[in-house]
Amino acid sequence: xxxxxxxxxxxxxxxxxxxxxxxxxxxxxxxxxxxxxxxxxxxxxxxxxxxxxxxxxxxxxxxxxxxxxxxxxxxxxxxxxxxxxxxxxxxxxxxxxxxxxxxxxxxxxxxxxx
Length: 114
Hints:
114 residues; globular; mainly beta; 6-stranded mixed β-sheet; 4-stranded antiparallel β-sheet
C-alpha cells in the first residue's frame, strides 16, 4: 500500500490549491479515504473523509465551508480542493485509507503566507 501526494506549494492568504493523492496496492474503490494534515510543531489531524463511492464526511470544523474532498475511483485518486486559505492551514498534507493504520506517504507541503 502506498500513497503519493502532490499539489502543495506556497500560496497567499485567501488563495486556493488543489491537492491530489494517488493510491497504490489495494482496491481503491473499496475504501473510504481521508486527508490529514500536520502543522509545524503540532499533532497530525484529520481534515476530511470521503466514502467509497463519493460523499464527503468528517470535515474538521476549521475547514468546513472552505475545503472539499472528492475522489475519482477510475484514477485511484483522492483530491482536496482548498479555498480561502489561511496561515493556519500551513501544514504537510497526507492521505490514507480512513480508519486504517497505513504507513504514511511523504505528504505535500502547503504554506500559506504573504
